[in-house]
Amino acid sequence: MIKHSLLVIFILISAISCPVIAQQATPSASQKVKPKIQHGITYQVVADISLYYVSEKLDGVRGYWDGEQLLTRQGNIIHSPSWFTQHWPSFPIDGELWLERDKFQALLSCVSKHSAEENKTVSCWREVRFMMFDLPKHQGDFNERVNQMQHLLSQVPSPYLAMIKQVKFKKLSALDKKLNEVIADQGEGLMLHLASAHYQIGRNSALMKLKKHQDAEATVIGHTKGKGKYQNQLGAIEVKTMDGIIFKIGSGFNDYQRAHPPKIGTIITFKYNGLTNAGIPRFARFWRIKTTK
User: Which residue among 30, 55, 77, 288 is least enclosed by CB atoms within 10 Å?
Assistant: First the structure.
């Protein structure tokens, strides 16, 4: 009798717990899965530029083709028309959705729609290209992946799949010249990719971003105390430019400068990358002391 009762209890527990376990094991259909992609670091001077491929850093929207659909870097679905990805391969491609230089806002307006216009004659997607720059699942080094991407273009009959041009230089002076040309044509910068590198998820030191910084002068008008590791030291300096723009600079200082900040009235030189709509320098960082009043 006891054995019979235990058997009944066991059956009841199994019947109750099994559906719960099955439900937990099945992922939600709406659950986002971020694509596993690599990211570059800020450019570090290299000894031999000939070991790297150089390409333009496009001002577009990062896209990931998983073999079935386009995703953002956050795992959101990009609602492209069915004809846009027709004939694309069934393996992953890492790339950039792009219109042309200085057209980022128009591109973003197009690719962020919740539904894509299938009618080619009126769809904004007819001008968009998916500029591939890597093959995440390919086991070869970047040199092999470049060759594979070039071969892929000759095999896929899609006018919407393209490839970012990859070139090599023998001298650093050629790299500087190329950067100046891209910036002069309203480009964003360059990417350097070590030819012998394999695809690496996350930050990859073999992939570097090179942008052209700007520099300007400003007068120190105030100090802000630091927090955390910089407690009782300099956190940021408040500066005023010749145009009367006032803002703070909190990066670019070494430990000595944190402990001995530029005095009020000192003219400093800072680096930055463009201006906001309000005229404030983007990504401003301290470079050096110019003069002291």
Answer: 30
Domain definitions of the chain by residue range: 38-210, 214-292
Does the model's pTM come out above 0.85?
no
Enumerate the active-site residues. 57
The pLDDT tens digits along the chain (293 residues) read 544 554 444 444 444 444 433 333 444 444 678 899 999 998 888 889 999 999 999 988 999 999 999 999 889 999 999 999 999 999 999 999 999 988 887 898 899 888 888 999 999 999 999 999 999 999 999 999 999 999 999 999 999 999 999 999 999 999 999 999 998 888 888 999 999 999 999 999 999 999 877 778 999 999 999 988 888 899 999 999 989 999 999 999 999 999 999 999 999 989 887 788 888 998 899 988 875 44
Q: Which two tokens stand for residue 87?
A: 């004939």
Class of 214-292 in CATH: mainly beta
